[in-house]
Amino acid sequence: MNDEFIPILPEAFVRRMQALLGPEAESFFDALHRPRDRGLRVNTFRITPEAFATRSPFSLQTLPWIQEGFAYRRPDRPGLHPWHDAGVYYLQDPSAMAAAILLDPQPGELVLDLAAAPGGKTTHLAARMDNRGLVVANEPHPQRVRVLGQNIERLGIRNTLVIQEKPENLVRRWPGQFDRVLVDAPCSGESMFRKDPVVRSAWREEAVARNARVQRKILAAAAELVRPGGRLLYATCTFSPEENEQVVAWFLETRPDFRLVPAPLPGSSPGRPEWGGRDDLVHCLRFWPHKSPSDGHFYALMERAGPAGSFRPRPKSGRSSRHVRDEFRPIRLPGPVAEIFREYLPGVPLPEWWEKRGDLWIALPDDFRLLGDLSGIRSVSKGVAWGSVQGRHFTPAHALAMTLRAAEVPNRLSWPAGAQEIDDWLRGKPLPAPSSAEPGWVWIGVDEFPLGWGKISEGQVKNHYPKGLRRPVE
Q: Is the pLDDT of residue 40 over 70?
C-alpha cells in the first residue's frame, strides 16, 4: 500500500471519534485515508509570497488563513530542492502555520515559545516580527535543541535566544515578562496518524488523560509568564477533548484573569462547548482534516487582564545563584574588529552589542536587554555568530552567510537551482573558480539565496559548507 495512506487506525481511537463526531465521523475517517495535504511556508526574509508563487517549480494551493503558506502534494518534494537548504521556505503542516497568525506578535515585543523544537512556529513568529524584538525559543529536551538551532540558522533568523529550561524555572526568573507566549503542548498527536506510523502504533487511550495532566501543569506555568494585557496561545496537534477543550476549561476556571479571545480564521471550525462544559469554548479553533487542507490542530487564544500597553515587571536577576551556568557579559565591538567586519561587509550595519567566546564574535539581538540579566539561564545560542577573528585574519561563520542578502556581499557567486555546481556544492565538493574571481572568502548562493561560504584559492572555490548539512556523495 502507498505510504500516503493509513492501513490501520487504533480501534479505541475509531470508537472514540465515532462517539464524538456521530454522522460526521465518516467524512473524518475518509479524510484520514486520503493522501495528505503537505504544507510549505515561505520565508519572507528571503522572498515575498507573490514572487515565490510565480517562481516556484512546485504545484501549489493557496491557504485561506495565511498569505505566506501553501499546500502541495506528491510527487512534488520541495525538501530535496536546494531552495530548502537556502532557507527559502519551511515545510510545515498548513494548520500549524495558524499559530503565528493567531498570536500575532508585533515588532519590538518580547515573545516566548515555551516548547520550540523543531522551530517551525518559532521561525514564523520571528518572521512576523520582521526580526525586531526578541523571540525566546525554549526547548527543555536536549536532543531536540540541535534541530531547533539548525532551522533558526537556515532561515536567517537574527532575533532569537535559544534556551533549555523547565517552564517552572522560567517562572521564577521572568514572571509576567512576555507580551506573547506560545504553548505548543506535548500531546497524543492524533493528527499525525497519517504522517507518522510510530505515533499511530504508540497511541493508547489511557495516555490521553496522562497527557492532559502534563498540559495543565505546563499551561499553569505559562500563564505566570504573560504580562498583564499580554496574550497566551495554547496549541495541540490532537483531536481529543480531554487535551483540548477540557484543559482550556480547567485553566479558565483556575485563572479568572484570563479570557478567550475570539479569533476565527478561514478554514477553521469553532471549538465544541459541549466537550468542555463552557459556552465560551466556542472561541477556540479546530482545524479538521475533512474540512481543511491540513492534518489538524487545536488552538485557544487567551488574554490576561490588564492594561494593553507594554508594561511589564522589572526582570529578576540571576546573579544571586551560587551555580551560575552561563555568565553573560555583553560587550561593544572593539574598533579593530569592527574595521575587519566593515572591510568584508561594507554595506551591513554592525549590531551594537556582542558576546565573545574565545575568538568567536556573536552579534546579539538588538532587544536582548528586554530580559535583563541572562546569567544563570541555560542558553544554547544567542543571536548570530559572525565568525572568528585572530589578528587581521577573519573566518566567517555559516550563520552569518544565512542572514545576508546577495546584494549585501561584494564578493559572491551564485548559480541556478538546476546547475551541477549547486549539486556538487551541497555534497561538499570544491568548485572551479571563475577566472575573474578574487582570492579570499566568497558568499555562495543558489538563485541569489544563501548557501554559505567558500574560499577562493589557486583557481578553486574550497567548500566550507558545514559537514553536518552536506548531502551524501553519490
A: yes
CA dihedral 386, 388, 391, 393 (to 10 degrees): -80
Residue 9 in contact with residue 32, Cβ under 8 Å?
yes
Single out the residue of 129, 66, 89 nearest to residue 287, CA to CA.
66
Beta-strand ranges (E) seen in 73-132 are 89-91, 110-113
pLDDT of 323 > 70? The answer is no
pLDDT of 304 reads: 97
Q: Which of 293, 220, 266, 249 is nearest to 101 (CA)?
A: 266
> 134-138 and 160-163: which strand pairing?
parallel
Three cell numbers written together for 293: 487542507
DSSP letter, residue 364: P
What is the spatial distance between Cα 94 and Cα 107, in angstroms, rounded to a whole number?
Answer: 24
**Domains, the chain, ordered by start:** 11-304 (3.40.50.150), 335-401 (no CATH), 406-469 (2.30.130.60)
> Which residues carry out catalysis?
237
Confidence class for position 369, pLDDT limits 50, 70, 90: confident
8 Å CB contact between 121 and 112 = no
Cell representation of residue 199: 505515533
Is-above-0.85 flag for pTM? yes
Where helices occur in 71-114 by DSSP H, the ranges are 82-85, 98-103
Distance CA 31, CA 33 (A): 5
